[in-house]
Amino acid sequence: RTENLGMPKAESARHFVKEFNPDIELNATVSRVDENSSLQIGDFDLVLDCTDSFESRFLLNRLCLEAKRPLIHGAVTRFMGQASTFLPGGPCYRCLLPQLPENVPSPALSGVLGATAGLIGSIQAMEAVKWLLEEGELLSGRLLVYDGMRMTFSELPIPKNPLCPDCGESLFP
Fold first, then answer.
1. Residue 72: alpha-carbon gap to chain centroid
2. CA 56/CA 112 separation, integer angstroms
3. What are the distances in angstroms from CA 16 to CA 3, 70, 120?
4. What would the pLDDT profile of 97-131 be if each residue is shown by its tens digit?
5. Are the CB atoms for 82 and 74 separated by under 8 Å?
6. H or E segment at 111?
7. Cβ(144)–Cβ(82) under 8 Å?
């Protein structure tokens, strides 16, 4: 919305939800997440990853593992998107992507289509609702991939990697 231009994503989402249903209790936290962050992931029930850098995703993954919190992942670029839910004890984001990829243009350079972001965001919201209600089948252990140019969805398995740098067996015996 035009009135939300320049507003942090978390605040914009909170305003939207409160307008939709004023009885919903929602706390939005706007904080830069980094190694020195005062943000305590353990204070939250679950985390929705709406970041746009691999470094931020790796950090959120590790923080969620340490706090034993679910991480609902979403990523978009142009006409492509993906989503998954990473639960404590299951495969994590680093099982999917063990190392930082090289030579991948940032979304700021490659562009993000609003319709793609809206679709992947809706999938993340559905995953959050299912987790909160403890109903349905989550995308845990699966990566949902959307191709807007072909209008297809595909699903890839995400096996738990015993050598994962974040959740491997040597780290969590």
1. 4
2. 18
3. 11, 23, 17
4. 999 888 776 666 677 888 999 999 999 999 999 99
5. yes
6. none
7. yes
**80-86 and 142-147: which strand pairing?**
antiparallel
Torsion of CA 122, 86, 26, 126, to 10 degrees: 30
Residue 126 to residue 109: CA distance in whole angstroms? 29
Provide the token pair at 11. 């605040």
**Dihedrals phi, psi of 7, to nearest 5 degrees:** -85, 140
DSSP string, 135-151: -S---BTEEEEEETTTT
**CB 53: neighbour CB atoms within 10 A?**
13
Angle at 111 between CA 56 and CA 71, to 5 degrees: 30
Total residues found in the chain within this entry: 173
Query: CA torsion angle for 20, 71, 154, 99 (degrees, to 10)?
Result: 140
Residues 10-35: tens digit of each pLDDT: 888 888 888 888 888 777 777 777 77
d(CA 156, CA 141): 9
Amino acid at 157: P
Task: Please tell me the pTM assigned to this model.
Answer: 0.84
Q: What DSSP designation does 69 have?
A: -
